[in-house]
Write a structure and sequence with these properties.
The protein is mainly beta. It contains 1 helix and 9 strands; from the N terminus they run H-E-E-E-E-E-E-E-E-E. The longest helix is centred in the N-terminal third of the chain and has 6 residues.
């Protein structure tokens, strides 16, 4: 990891792939990841960890399957939301968004349980940032 400050704008400008997170830095045993997103991700759940989202630009929606039923949260630019561990969820961005996620290192982007992964979703534990 870099010992110098990292510009998130420059980091986001360094790649074009959608739903393909890049690791910006690490904090203890956690990755700080950024991604460009548009359209739908896949329904998935992380059995052992929460998933933190910060919307840097655009708007992100996250559908959740909870004991009380299904709901969707809408996150405009500057909003944060944490999906509780074990909760099936599906992020989507109808008009595109840039997001930052905070997850334990090695966490798969499609969770521990998921629907069939479409071609436009990168099933990864995060890619190195190519700056």
């Amino acid at each position: 990891m870099s010992s110098e400050p990292i510009s998130l704008g420059r980091a986001l400008a360094s790649f074009d792939a959608l739903w393909s997170p890049r690791i910006v830095t690490r904090v203890n045993d956690y990755d700080v990841r950024i991604a460009k997103v548009e359209g739908e991700h896949v329904w998935h759940a992380h059995d052992d960890t929460d998933e933190f989202f910060l919307v840097l630009d655009g708007a992100l929606h996250i559908s959740l399957r909870e004991p009380a039923g299904e709901r969707t949260v809408q996150l405009p630019k500057g909003s944060v939301f944490t999906v509780p561990r074990g909760t099936p969820h599906r992020p989507f961005a109808p008009s595109g968004a840039h997001i930052l996620m905070f997850e334990p290192t090695g966490t798969p982007s499609v969770g521990d349980r998921h629907d069939e992964v479409p071609d436009h979703v990168d099933a990864t534990t995060g890619h190195a940032l190519g700056l």
